[in-house]
Records
---
Amino acid sequence: MEYGNQSCENLLLKLQELTFAAVDLNLYLDNHPENKNALADFNAITRELNKLKKLYEAENGPLTNFGCSESKYPWEWVNDPWPWEII
Amino acid sequence: MWVYEKKLEHPVKIKSKDLQMAKFLMAQYGGPDGELGASIRYLSQRYTMPTGKTKGLLTDIGTEELAHVEMIAAMIYQLTKDASPEEMKAAGLGAHFTEHDNAIYPADANGIPWTGAYIQSIGDPITDLTEDMAAEVATVYEQQCDEYGSTRYIPPNY
């Protein structure tokens, strides 16, 4: 999938959609670790999610703290808006 | 350990003030069957679960419930943003304003603070999972849908 010209808002929504699917598949796999179809879907969505996270972070700064994402200078983690402020 | 992801699990974009709805939503934030209770319940019970599957599942749903806590808190924040003390009082949130201003505080719709007494973690997996099922029963969701005349909550098919 290509995301080249997407707006930040669309990228965030797409991230939220993929995360939602990943959470559900993760919970399903907790109960069904041997389901190959669910595992293939989970891994495909996770690959897509990682690709999209990098694109989003290049524009908006780190999505995750504590060593999961790098930051440009100056330290971008503290930049507004925070998730509850995006109205 | 945990890491924070700087996004909500589902978008919350409420553009208009509704203090009455904010008050009712407090039930889902800091009430006995709310999201905070769910999270702490699962994250406490997981330590004494007998299998990798149950430890994994309770770790994951306890973590996801924290994302639900954040969405409910974001809704209450947006619904009460810029409300004056007079408006808070008229909506039954006068006591909330006295003690917390317009801040987010984990209490129920009556202002009773969240307490660990709402949850149990007793070390027997069947007993703990039975409590979890009771807490997940959709009564609170249904009552809130009724209050707003919206479609009744339809439980997922398992």
Note: DSSP finds seven helices and no strands in chain B.
---
Amino acid sequence: MGAPILIAVGGSGQHTMLSYLRLARLCNLVPARLMTIDADLRQGDSGQPTTASLIEKQARVGFRDKVAWEPVRPLPELNDPQAQTFESLLRPVPGVETDLFSALFNQRQREVRVVTGFHGHPSVAASTFRMFLSDGATGLSKLFKEWISAGGEQRIVVAGSTFGGTGSGVMPVLTSYIKDWCAKKDLKLRLGGVIQVRWFDLGLPDQVTPEDKEKVDVTSHDLERNSSCLVEYYRRNLESMFHNAFLVGHYPHASRKSTGVEQQPEHPHAVNLLAGYVAYQLLHGEELSDTQGLLGLVTPDGSLEQHLHFPFGRSRRPQPLARHIETTNGEIALHQSILNVLSAGPPSGWDVVEPYPPFFSQLVQQSQGSYGGPNNRHTEPAATWNEHFTMQKEALSWLAAVRENSFDIKACQFPEELVPPARDIGKLSVHEPHLWGPLHDVFRTVLRRVQPIEYGDDPGSVIRRSFYTVRQELENFLEDKQRRAQ
Amino acid sequence: MSRDLIWWLLLAALALAAMGLFIADQVQKANQRNILLQGNCEEAAMVEAVRSYKTVVLGLAVLSTVLGVSVSALLTRRLQAELYHGTPGTGRRFTVGVLVSLGVVVAASAIFYLFDRSCLHAAVASEGGLPANVASRVMSLVGNMVPNFWLASTLEVLLVTFLSFFALSRILRLLSGQVARLRRA
């Protein structure tokens, strides 16, 4: 079976992908190959990071191994650099062609600045993406030439929404194209869909100037129109698009502030978390492997941490998300203490026994580094360790933000003992109680089993693999402890 | 409770038990000597009592280092400074181990002195006992320079305890390093 592939289309697709990646961090999972399709892949200015930049960061820092990630701009070759609107891209010949173009697309659609996205116009997105495919679809060459493999079943999940512009317009075209391509090559494909239906009302930011008001590109009315039309379209055509799919949403709608045309920041929310989980199940799960058609509409509730299950420990038996969150808490305590030891420096010569487990000398030796604090950015292995550690803390902070942002729909109300408030995340005293034993005992037991000397000679890989082996060994330790307690 | 913690606690308990048994045995022997002498403490008996006492105290000094080293190793296991504060170990755990050894040997020597019914009390008494320069020279390397029994004994116990602790700690450090390397291999 080829490595599974997750394709995120548009803003909601990227939210699903980010959520999937954060869940992969919280639950120590190996993520699928990733592809994002969006016209607007800007990294954002100095302010809030965009979803595109957050996905890029997740892929760059990596997991136990580097993550394959490919960003694709679904635009045809722009011969004219000034061509920024849909109309200038299509360049209809004056006469009948222009008349036809005007009949099919209204003025607002014709003037969409496609270089920054499709701004809630699925018809513009679908037409542009069709042009992109006709143009050779060079951006998708990685997908078709390298990723999709002939051996066994190839799982691909496409995530997007029915209410935006890019997802709504690109998804139907893309899925048909992939299905046709695989059929022609006689490849066994299982194409899944995670489709967000409209679940929020779009409001304006609290303090908004008249100029900013004009910048807001998509209204609740646009979302409603797109969603209604596309859900109906999916109802009729789903089988030609996907093998199996879930709709993800919530009613009554949550409220969300519009961030305007210039920003695409992350919106941590229970619906996105659930979409990430559904993507995980379709990509890696066995329960849904033989299912067909539209599998249902899923919606988050108040205690998702008990209902979502991921494989855990040595046995890889599914355990509720709560167990994984608890382990991530313990993991944060362990990583903090490892960083502290690295910053404390080489072992003291005065001690009557070797004070550190062999893990430290091996890690320093194999990473060709030295002891040093996380604040010294150039000291390895502490600097890279700290980078991975920050990602784990971010994943927990994301859960805290999900709780906060999902309060209005009473979903994902994680207890504070499980998900501490964002300001407390990273404090050793907050995470230590989740270790099920004194820190120094768990520290020695877990690190005894982590042997950086076995992870090759490339310093980056040694540090990365050591980091994730600590997590794996912590899971094994907690699983054994629980089994003994029972 | 982890396995190495159990081993260190066991070693500390063994050291304590050995010291207790050693003291009890020596007290019994001293009392038997006293019965034979029928309370008649002549100079030779007093010198013998002092020699016996110093032998026991120096033996206790060596035994107490096992206890001190165990305490030091237990503190090292905890890595309090490194794990929680990111500060290096500055010899505090070593010092605590030495102080524990010294404290234990002082306490054990005092207990032995209190239970000893031989001529020891008479020998170190200011009146009718051995002359200070004689008592301090019995089984002593520093007695010539320090003509006071208690002062000379204290200095010797300090020296023996420290040297013994240092030697044992170096051996253990070497062994634990070797064990770690062997495990790695």
Note: The first helix of chain B runs from residue 3 to 37.
